[in-house]
Amino acid sequence: MGVARGGFSSRFGFIMAAAGSAVGLGNIWGFPTQTASNGGAAFVLVYLVLAFCLAYPAFMAELLIGRYGQANAVTSMQKISRNNRQKHFAFVIGFGGVICAALILSFYGIIAGWMMSYAIEPVAKLAGLTGTANWLISQSLVRNVLFTALFMSLTIFIIRRGVEQGIEKWSKRLMPMLIALLILLIIYVFTLEGAKEGFTAYLNPDISRVFEPNLLISALGQAFFSLSLGTSVMIVYGSYIAKKENLVTLGVQVTLIDVSIAFLAGLLIIPAMYVAQAQGVAIFAEDGSLISGSNLVFTVLPALFSGMGFVGLFVAFGFFVLMSIAALTSSISMLEGPVSYVVERHEVPREKATTFIGLAILVFSILIVVNLSWMLDFIAMLSTQYGQPIIAMLCCVFVGWIWHRSDVLAEIKQGNSTVEYGLFWKIWPWYIKFICPTAIALVFWHSL
């Protein structure tokens, strides 16, 4: 290739970038409410087990493909292929992941824009701009387009700067900030009336529910999707890792950070919901389940912050800044997938490719905004419920059935010379060949 690729300059840089990709809005608002609605600590326990027993092996498969190929998702997979049929299959998987990442970013940017507008709202209130504050949290075409464009501009700015100066540099800044904000908010919420009840609801185990089919499927889906599987992202990030690095331990570290932040998010969101209930805010839907998703973030929690009085402005600001950072660390990885493909396959300069692709996704986002009532949910469902599990499953099939086992071992041994004698190599090849594709297929079937 005639285009300089760059790479992560440090192990910490990769861990922050990969964890940033994995830690997104789904972790912050999806995991906590699923936990509370599926047996509390029973769900947490099942999620942790499945994250390491099933999601981590699939995560490792994508990292290995990337580091072996040292290229974008399509090229990396085609380097493994041995004949034209396999190369066509590799293209379908790799390019499918690229398209999936672009689709996710197209609706993700809209929701992230809402997070940014809600973060600015308390600042406007403090400045006495009541009319502006109300506009910032009201649905309107102008607001949605403006903040979607603002968020996408930030994403484009970071990706234009490349791997080391863009993705790695900003991930190193944003991820520690995210974790610090999360911990500070948890500490504050725990001092409020009702938090103890929320803490009990989140962590009180109902072991009888551990083997419920719906709980198992929900936990499995959360584990797979929270690690950005099926979007080509981890293949691209894997291609930026030095050959000397131990991928087995790197994968464990990223998985640990991801599940830890999801767990911490639960320690914030669920007690906060019960604090809101103590203040008279409804937190249960008509069917008896905890309110989740956008209604939780844009209705229940703002009502809680409003009930806190003056200090609530600062808490609201901190929370929505936290959400905006979580969105940004994920969005930069989603844009990198399509950009790396265009840069390397067509030798387009990174700055030009990033701007062109970013603006194209923004135009599609605006199309979604104009048709918000049906298109947002449709694109979200198409990309996350259909695209991600199918691509992730095919990726596992590719590594388990097409890539020669001896070649896989040789790639892992470059950073871990004794890996074939350890537990990982005794289990992982069989997992990726049989268990992971079956498990992902179950998640997909359940989503239908």
From TrEMBL:
One Pfam family linked to the record: SNF
Q: Which PROSITE patterns match?
A: NA_NEUROTRAN_SYMP_3
Indicate how the chain sits in the lipid bilayer.
Answer: Multi-pass membrane protein
InterPro entries (alphabetical): Na/ntran_symport, SNS_sf, YocR/YhdH-like
Q: Where are the transmembrane segments?
A: 12-32, 44-68, 89-116, 145-163, 175-195, 215-242, 254-276, 355-374, 386-403, 423-445
Q: Which UniProt keywords apply?
A: Membrane, Transmembrane, Transmembrane helix, Transport
Localization per Swiss-Prot or TrEMBL: Membrane
Q: Which GO terms describe its cellular component?
A: membrane
Q: Which PANTHER family match?
A: TRANSPORTER
User: What's the protein here called?
Assistant: Sodium-dependent transporter
